[in-house]
Design goal:
Strands 1, 2, 3, 5, 6, 8, 11 and 13 form an eight-stranded mixed β-sheet that branches. Strand 34 and strand 35 form a beta hairpin. The protein contains one helix and 51 strands. 1% of the residues lie in helices and 44% in strands. The protein folds into four domains: 159 residues, Galactose-binding domain-like (Jelly Rolls), CATH 2.60.120.260; 79 residues, Immunoglobulin-like (Sandwich); 81 residues, Immunoglobulins (Immunoglobulin-like), CATH 2.60.40.10; 318 residues, 6 Propeller (Neuraminidase), CATH 2.120.10. Keywords: Carbohydrate metabolism, Glycosidase, Hydrolase, Polysaccharide degradation, Signal. This is PQQ-dependent sugar dehydrogenase. It comes from Kitasatospora purpeofusca.
Length: 686
């Protein structure tokens, strides 16, 4: 018997305490509890009589669970250690997907301490809950047996936890926040308190998906400072308890800061350009003036910021890097003061970067393939390459998009719900063996969390609906959602941390991970932790692509510092929430490239000719990042279409061609454009 710590159980639900049956007289007097840390004993490692170890359902911990034979007398017996004699809580984690109760007798060291303990139905065989009772243990080794008492046998049994069970009940959702004391650079946010079975210890304040501040659990307001004048902030609140459980996000509130009385700086002098290369240029400009002093200059392409210069006073020259080769640019400069005032833009300076290097081709000008979309989220190609399936996040609809440009709705995914943020219908992956099984796979947000499901597509319509994996925590943001088949034939999926950062480091949690599974919904053979987890330490990964050597590359959103491009290896820990960007710490894997969050917010990625193409939302651009041959390093990232098409969501390689499809996502709740305003572009790699 090899016990494992209970401290990292991410999928357990709150245990229901039941009354303990009478114990023998010698043990009836109160006794001290044995000094036990909570310890897990996996059922598959116990003694099993008239039962089998199985893995055909989801959500279990360890390597499997015990499926009792449907006879009275079938049992599982655990060897349990205690450092001293006394009474300890025993929690049996189980699932019962039938309508009938499956009672069991619980005995300790051969004596029944609770008879006919009820193990009633759960929602299905993938839904696990707990039954807890207090039982006497002696110092040293004990045997704890759970025996079925009816012909229905026992429930599916996942594990026994001995000692104080971990708190797995999340706080309730905080009430809708409101704003008071609004000024040009700050405001006070207040909200009705959340509740928790143990106690709320903290509240986190989010602006869209980024954490702005936190307060202690007994405080339901926060003064936010350092805000930009005349700016709308979309604010929500999440409650946390001492165990790290996070509530659903509150309803959001939009609060707009005041314009302020401070006059903005004057426009900077017209910029000049020199030292133009294929990917960079040096700019200089005349200084702006301000009554309280200029604190920063921004070099912009339209509304997109390419470089920021700070200082006291800031310099009036900078080298702008990461530009696209052989491309025209018209750049301006604006000045900012300490109050957040922004000057008028300078006159533009125009130039064209030098010729492109011959290291894998460069993207040409986008041509509109299809329009009228509302947040097209993912693309998966049919095996013959003539068309692809495209999901719409908020409508839950699925379309067949032909290479010719024709678009046809083929159905919708049942049970999908929105989160008024990043949840909804997300990833899609067509089975490599679609021609024989007609299977397609989706990841979507449902009532209880995020799911990976399978449906049938006959070439014209979707049908059927089978849940392969659920129990992936959802929240307003950080839901991940990308699906991709690997060269090994297994299905890979990205999951966000569900705005509960600690889950990303919990190997027993499905959140903050890249998962690897079979098409039947089981953990893929060879996974590093004997469960679904392939890699961990991810905040909100949304990009997946395999290179010519079959290696997996991934892109993910950072919090407030750096977004990342990672080379994924099985069992790798990519650092969140310990750090974002380069960690430089033993046991954590650093990214191959990173960007400040305002320049990227990466979603989809694709690889063509050994070059990674990355679609950026907040950065409103597509990055081109060459892989250095067959090494594990990448070259200089360059930017295309900066600010031209707005927020870019998904980029996909066209089969059999040096082409990309690129989707916009301006109709989401950050782009603020109307439904039907998004497009899919076709791009040829020259």
């Amino acid at each position: 018997m090899r016990p494992t710590s209970a401290g990292g159980v991410g999928l357990a639900v709150a245990a229901l305490i039941i009354a303990t049956a009478a114990v023998p007289p010698a043990q009836a007097q109160p006794r001290p509890r044995p000094r036990l840390a909570a310890t897990d004993y996996q059922a598959e490692n116990a003694v099993v009589v008239q039962g089998t170890v199985a893995t055909n359902h989801t959500g279990y911990t360890g390597t499997g669970f015990v499926d009792y034979t449907n006879v009275a007398g079938s049992y599982v017996e655990f060897g349990v250690g205690a450092t001293s004699a006394g009474t300890a809580p025993l929690t049996f984690r189980y699932a019962n997907g039938t309508a009938v109760d499956r009672p069991m007798d619980i005995s300790v060291n051969g004596t029944v301490v609770a008879s006919g303990v009820s193990f009633p139905a759960t929602a299905d065989w993938n839904t696990w809950t707990g039954r807890t009772l207090n039982a006497p243990l002696r110092a040293g080794t004990n045997t704890v047996r759970a025996t079925a008492t009816t012909a229905n046998g026992g429930p599916n049994l996942d594990r026994l936890t001995v000692g104080a069970a971990a708190d797995t009940t999340a706080p309730s959702r905080p009430g809708q926040p409101s704003c008071t004391g609004i000024g040009p650079n700050g405001l006070t946010l207040g909200w009705p308190a959340a509740t928790d079975n143990v106690g709320v210890t903290a509240y986190d304040v989010y602006e869209h998906g980024n954490k702005l501040a936190e307060t202690p659990g007994d405080t339901t307001s926060k003064v936010l400072t350092g805000l930009t004048p005349g700016t709308t902030y979309n604010l929500s609140v999440i409650a946390r308890d001492a165990a790290g459980n996070a509530s659903p996000a509150s309803v959001a509130v939009d609060c707009t800061t005041g314009a302020g009385d401070d006059p903005p700086p004057s426009a900077p002098g017209a910029p000049t350009v020199s030292a133009v290369t294929a990917t960079s240029a040096e700019l200089g400009w005349g200084a702006a003036t301000d009554d309280k002093g200029v604190v920063a200059y921004e070099v912009r392409s339209g509304a997109a910021v390419l470089a920021t210069v700070t200082g006291t006073p800031p310099a009036t020259t900078t080298t702008v890097t990461g530009l696209a080769c052989d491309a025209p640019f018209a750049l301006t400069v604006v000045a900012k003061d300490a109050a957040g005032g922004v000057s008028p833009a300078s006159a533009p300076v125009s130039f064209t970067t030098a010729a492109c290097p011959a290291d894998g081709g460069v993207p040409g000008s986008p041509a509109t393939l299809s329009s009228g979309w509302s947040v097209p989220w993912d693309i998966s190609w049919m095996p013959d390459g003539s068309s692809a399936l495209v999901t719409e996040r908020d409508s839950f609809k699925v379309f067949k998009q032909a290479r010719s440009g024709t678009r046809t709705e083929i159905g919708a995914v049942p049970n999908a719900v929105t989160t008024d943020g990043e949840g909804g219908l997300l990833g899609v992956a067509v089975d490599p063996n679609w021609s024989t099984n007609h299977y397609v796979y989706f990841m979507h947000t449902a009532a209880e969390g995020n799911r990976i499901v399978r449906m049938t597509y006959n070439g014209s319509a979707l049908s059927g609906y089978t849940v392969l994996l659920q129990g992936i925590k959802k929240n307003r943001y950080h839901n991940g959602g990308r699906l991709a088949f690997g060269p090994d034939g297994y299905l890979y999926a990205t999951t966000g941390d569900g705005q509960t950062p600690d889950l990303a480091q919990d190997k027993n949690s499905l959140n903050g991970k890249i998962l690897r599974m079979t098409t039947a919904g089981k953990p893929a053979p060879g996974n590093p932790f004997n469960n679904y987890v392939y890699s961990l330490g991810h905040r909100n990964p949304q990009g997946l692509a395999f290179d010519r050597n079959g290696r997996l590359w991934e892109a993910e959103f950072g919090d407030s510092k750096y977004d990342e491009l990672n080379l994924i290896k099985p069992g790798g820990n990519y650092g969140w929430p310990t750090c974002e960007g380069t960690c430089g710490k033993s046991g954590l894997t650093d990214p191959k490239a990173s960007w400040p969050v305002n320049l990227a917010s990466p979603s989809g990625i694709a690889i063509v000719r050994n070059v990674v193409y990355l679609a950026a939302l907040r950065g409103t651009r597509m990055y081109r990042i060459p892989i250095n041959g067959d090494t594990e390093s990448v070259g200089t990232a360059t930017s295309y279409y900066v600010g031209t098409y707005g927020r870019l969501r998904t980029v996909s390689k066209v089969p059999g061609a040096d082409q990309l499809w690129l989707t916009t996502t301006n109709a989401d709740n950050n782009g603020n454009q109307p439904d039907g305003s998004d497009k899919i572009f076709r791009i040829t790699i020259g």
